[in-house]
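Input sequence (463 aa), recorded before submission:
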Amino acid sequence: MKPVIRQLIADRALLADGWRNNVLLEWDEQGILTSVRPDAEVLALAPRAAATVLPGIANLHSHAFQRAMAGLTEYRSNPSDSFWSWRTLMYQFAGKLSPADLKAVATQLYIEMLQAGYTSVCEFHYLHHDRDGKPYANPTENMACLIAAAEEVGIGLTLLPVMYQYSGFGAQPPHPGQARFINSPQWMMAALQRLQADHPQHAGLRYGVAPHSLRAVSPQSLQELLTELKQWDAQAPVHIHIAEQRKEVEDGKAALGAPPVAWLLDNMAVDRHWCLVHATHMTPQETIGLARSGAVAGICPTTEANLGDGIFSGVEYAAAHGAWGVGSDSHISTSLSEELRLYEYSQRLQHRQRNMLVGEHAASVGAYLYRQALHGGAAASGRKVAGLQVGQSADLLVLDRQHADLEGKQGDQLLDSFVFSHHGQTPVRDVMVGGHWVINDRKHRLQETSLAAYARSMKSLLA
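Predicted structure, token format:
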């Protein structure tokens, strides 16, 4: 019987203190790093990654089922097409999916995320009930499908069941397209308890909550959910859609007396356990307040561009030392590098300058983007995925040193090239999650069977 080898030597790796050579990584049976030693001696049993190793990053915002919609809404259905007309189409599509469809779509999506460099995902899940809006016998049936997909594929998962009650500010009644989403604080807490009983949390699986948005929950129900959540798990992550659209901001002012971000910061105990997704339309005061709270801004550049949402105040937020991460959201793209690249490009277009997002002590844009997304994604996930450090998950990417985009590059030039140079196939060659190789030579062991199942679901959904 072959010995279990929980070691790897990287020619060069990005550690917390920068680039280091001959890095020996060791991890335990749970996939948690127990030793990270640069300048290590070559060990007889330790495999060698003769390449560049990067820490894996968490995708902090995902609606898995929307992967199946990619490319289906790129036509004008309304003379003034917007997020709101797109949302109507999304509701129609969401109404068709069965649990089997959701499992097939999520499996395909999670493989694609791994191949692109994400090693974890935060799933913002609101497809709770059956297609007619009636509860399943097992209220967590669809969530169990997502857990199964993540486990089979080998990606880390933070599952965030969504509380969704109303169609708009002022407790407006939900409309038929939202029937599959509707629940209550009591339903949410019962679901978390059921999930913990059926699928206990572990190093690769974490639970939190996601009040959908201030327009979809009431202040009273939000406070009730947070109070009960704190009693259940005071460290659980809390994610919320907050200020994606200008209409949402104006409606929030009318209903709450303040724009959504300001109201949330003033009325709820927002801290490092929170992730505010699409904080797109903030005042300068809100930008500073969010940064000071310690919460993570969830930025989804490809989706925000696709939906015409607007541009996040990235330069101002960086100046205030705010935490942020990226998510692929609607999954028109699952490319980590594309999210980072488009985030920087949005700032260049807004300010009409180059190289806008950089750290205080280094000029590399790619290094700033990668490091910030790493730490922000880890905080948003509520899991130990903050890089190649002792006590963190052994999640890593091996870059192909023979890829044309990386040829001859050293140090932070590698990160600049990873983010801003895109020619042909991804430079991500191999991926490890929790000490297990899940991508080898750009391939996943389930990709053929997954694609076949995905094709069957798409044929049914589009019939």
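Checked by second reader. The radius of gyration is 21 Å.
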